[in-house]
Amino acid sequence: MNLASQSGEAGCSQLLFANFNQDNTFAAVLTSLAVGTKSGYKFFSLSAVDKLEQIYECTDTEDVCIVERLFSSSLVAIVSLKAPRKLKVCHFKKGTEICNYSYSNTILAVKLNRQRLIVCLEESLYIHNIRDMKVLHTIRETPPNPSGLCSLSISNDNCYLAYPGSATIGEVQVFDTVNLRAANMIPAHDSPLAALAFDASGTKLATASEKGTVIRVFSIPEGQKLFEFRRGVKRCVSICSLAFSMEGLYLSASSNTETVHIFKLETQKEKPAEEPTTWGGYLGKVLMASTTYLPSQVTEMFTQGRAFATVRLPFSGHKNICALALIQKIPRLLVAAADGYLYLYNLDPQEGGECTLMKQHRLDGSAEPPNEILEQGSHDRPLNAQTYNSAATKGKQTHNKPFYTVDIQQIDSVYPINCILFCNRLC
Prior knowledge:
five-stranded mixed β-sheet, mainly beta, repeat, 6% helix, WD repeat, globular
């Protein structure tokens, strides 16, 4: 996620970009955080809470505004502010550039999975084959998408791409990147889209609009609404990110406010009808019956789910990105923010409630002040350490001819991608 402000400045922090690699939905002990800075880019291991291990740093490219790593492999896609139309694909362990592509407009987002690499421009999307970087398909003349909003499923079986279908209302276009055809159009919101996220299986898509009050989850590719959650009613906010947990039971939503909401995706079991025995029970039955005669907007508020857990961030107004993962066998919420910090919270999968801040780490290399926030946190409730499972451009792009292939069968000592990138020219 681009962490710079609309003016292009990252403020006092060196951070320009941050993103959790795709493994956070599979094997949390192997997750990593990619960070783009004014001086280059870095990768951090997220296998422990108390220590943030820097596993790689590159200072060859300044002002890195996009850095996307393919799972836990050596493949990384890079875009810098000094060359915003140029995509570089590199083997970071060897320190070599594999190939590069140039486009006629600024690159706003890059997404990767085992089969495809997606490049998002303001009015077009390019779909590349990850094995040889050939352009398989171009989606042209898309509605203006200045934020580069899009989401790519990491599933092999459901390899879908989601992007805005309108600049004025919240339509979602779902595209099958394997068969290279449109799969569905989902009328998700009345207002323009602000955030999109697939679950690990590629069968659910979470959406939020620019109003930021309602989060919806749809089945993919059918487009049926499965869940609807209300983030709040007092104020409209800008949703920064949505993220599912590894098995799709929880969904986190962060915004430009100090609160992160975590919703639980479980279907409420219908209870058999019972005659009320108290005045309160009778009044509740009357209220529910009266929803039949109320406007649809009011009726929806009675049926929308509320947050299962919340996180109180020590800041507001900063862009941020969140992720749900298991670290050291405990469910955690991770938040990387434009203030230059990574925040780690414990999530109680049984009780929910307010999550406890366990640790914060500096991401830009400057000295870390005493962790005063931890002293303010509440540690009264013991942590239940159960796991989740127990509970357009109109021009043409130019490129250097690719000279590599990706051998998915080779072992790189990591799960689940297990791939090594072999550069034919270098081998």
